[in-house]
Amino acid sequence: MHTIIITGAGSGIGSAAAVALSRLPSIRVVLIGRRREPLEETAAKCEGEAIVHDQDVADREAWKAFLGSEELGLAAFPLVGVFANAGVGGPNRFADGEGDRWEEIIRTNLTGTYVTVESCKPYLDAAASIGPRHVVVTSSVLARFGVPGQAAYVASKTGLLGLVRSWATEWSDSGVLVNAICPGWVETEMARNSIQAMADQYGRSYEEELGVQSQLLPTGRISQPEEVAELVVWLMSGAQRSMTGQGIDINNGSYMV
Predict the structure, then answer these.
(1) Using CA atoms, how far apart are residues 13 and 87, in angstroms rounded to an integer?
(2) Looking at domain 2-184+225-249, which of 3.40.50.1370, 3.30.930.10, 3.40.50.720, 3.40.630.10 is its CATH number?
(3) What percentage of the chain reaches a pLDDT higher than 90?
(4) Bridge partners, 133 (sequence order)
(5) What is the pLDDT of residues 16-68, one digit of tens each?
(6) pLDDT tens-digit profile of 209-246?
(7) Residue 95: pLDDT above 70?
(8) Exposed e or buried b for every residue in 230-257, given b needs 16+ CB within 10 A?
């Protein structure tokens, strides 16, 4: 039995990925998030063993204590994958500094991912005899282009692509493959909040704004979390052994290379 850790596993893409990864043979999933209740709801949907642990992903000491704990038992159940998915969204406005969310967004999205993956790296190294191990990071289509009013979010998601390239360059020769996914609109709570904010701004209903945003996409639709989860599963399943350092776009055509 091997272990895969998923952060931000209480909702959206993280929850869908946890459920999908739990279906892989001989895999137990470890669900990390800030709130225990949604993690337990995800765990109830998983197949096989699912461990629930609530912590701040940017807390180095919390990671050190948890990863080395008997509760987790990575000596017996080696760590073969990390899906660093935890993140927060929304606007940040500097103005006079009051209510600015720069530190909050950067700390969770960028620093939190850095601390998560670096904390897990020694345990990925300890599982070298198993074969390739995988790190997948959730970036965003907004790492590809800027949008107004979300400087912190765009900067954090763009920074993640730099982290992924650096880790891939450093770690791939030891068998740790590191990639990012760059989703566009996905049917998640974060996306719904963003669409509602735009609806309020333009005096439209949520359904009207969803239609407007969908029609901006070549496919005319937004993704479901389960679709993105299947990409994560493929990246971590051992089916691929050659891709590393990449940002993989899954965005209904909103950005094309």
Answers:
(1) 11
(2) 3.40.50.720
(3) 75
(4) 176
(5) 999 999 999 999 999 999 999 999 999 999 999 999 999 999 999 999 999 99
(6) 888 888 888 899 989 999 999 999 999 988 889 999 99
(7) no
(8) ebbbebbeeeeeeebbbbbbbbbebeee
DSSP 143: G
The average pLDDT across 158-174 equals 97
pTM (two decimals): 0.94
Beta strands in 116-218 (DSSP E): 133-138, 176-183
Q: Which two tokens stand for residue 89?
A: 């969204």
98 alpha-carbon distance from chain centroid: 29
Q: Where are the domains of the chain?
A: 2-184+225-249, 186-222
What value, to the nearest 5°, has the Cα angle with vertex 96 and ends 94 and 100? 40
